[in-house]
Amino acid sequence: MINGGWVCALHVRTAGQGGAALGSDEEETVYLAYVVIDVVTNQVLGEQEYAVRPTITPSEELQTGQPLDVVVQQFDEFVRSLQVDLHSPLFRLVTDGQPPLRQCLHPEACSKELDLPSYYARFHDLRKEFVRAYTLRAINPRAQPAQPPPDHPTCLPDMLNYLRITPYAGENVYAAEIKDMTSIILRIIADGFRLELPETIDLVLETGICSKDDEIDGNCIVRVRGIPCQSSDQDIANVFRGLNVAKGGVARCLTPQGRRSGEALVRFVSQEHRDMALKRHKHRRFL
């Protein structure tokens, strides 16, 4: 729950697809935008945009900016200049949906062997917070009657239209999404709501053994093929970095002779995470 401190809107663009498919093609990040908001005063403290230069598949068109690790460090320094404690539990990122962190930044950092600061492993999903807040208002008998929000907003315009907020129409087209995200966050706080649905990204697989009494949801499982025999359970979980694998959620398949078959079953904490795993294009040959 955020009842004080700071939130930071984060917008990510890659060299590939956007929208619902953001990150599914595993293209590199080319643009990051941040807006830091003081929750107590409901004021913007600072905002930054960064062009990010791809390093795995360099492009002549995308040679501006700095590599991802340099940009992450530059943002750290910027936030510290605002006298904001980045490592406080009261500092949280806010993203438009799950993909910016789960499908983009964390998989890319893993592939480049970069360690993201710890605050990138905790965030709030703006769409979920929006639905929670305005559903509560709609069912509150003491509040003014209001239409319930859309159950599953699929884009920023869905939320802007409900809140009757005019979309950003300035000259900086790259900043439109982060500006609109900021408007929505400021409205949620101004309407008296708090961000109460924190999400975490597990970086280390929690080991354990499933009991025969545990209920296993088959909709949370994928079968992975083509695994090198020497791979550890953590190596397999790293294929899905950004998504949370359930405790003891990697089960190696064996041949009739008791040898590793090169296949495994991976169980995620929810169907939402499993569905994101299936969207990652480069890994479809393994699934």
Description:
There is one protein chain. The protein has 7 helices and 9 strands. It has 287 residues and is of the alpha+beta class. A 6-stranded mixed sheet has the order 3-2-1-4-5-6, sandwiched between helices. Strands 7-9-8 form a 3-stranded antiparallel sheet. Helix 4 packs across helix 5. The chain has 2 domains: 6-200, Nucleotidyltransferase, domain 5 (2-Layer Sandwich), CATH 3.30.420.10; 218-286, RRM (RNA recognition motif) domain (Alpha-Beta Plaits). The chain is 28% helix and 22% strand. It has helices at 68-81, 99-111, 126-139, 156-163, 176-190, 233-238, 271-279; strands at 6-14, 29-38, 43-51, 91-95, 122-125, 198-200, 221-224, 245-254, 260-268. A hairpin with a 4-residue loop joins strand 2 and strand 3.
Give the topology:
Elements: E1 6-14, E2 29-38, E3 43-51, H1 68-81, E4 91-95, H2 99-111, E5 122-125, H3 126-139, H4 156-163, H5 176-190, E6 198-200, E7 221-224, H6 233-238, E8 245-254, E9 260-268, H7 271-279
| Secondary-structure element string | EEEHEHEHHHEEHEEH
Output the CATH homologous superfamily of the largest domain: Ribonuclease H-like superfamily/Ribonuclease H
Q: If you average the pLDDT, what whole number results?
A: 89
Number of helices: 7
Our estimate of the beta-strand percent is 15-25%
State the low-pLDDT regions, or none.
Answer: none
**Domain unit count:** 2
DSSP helix fraction: 25-40%
CATH class of the largest domain: Alpha Beta
Q: CA-to-CA gap between the ends? A: 36 Å
Class computed from helices, strands and strand pairing? alpha+beta
| Shape by Cα distribution | globular
Q: How do the strands line up in the largest sheet? A: 3-2-1-4-5-6
Judging by the overall fold, what is the CATH architecture of the largest domain?
A: 2-Layer Sandwich
CATH topology of the largest domain: Nucleotidyltransferase, domain 5
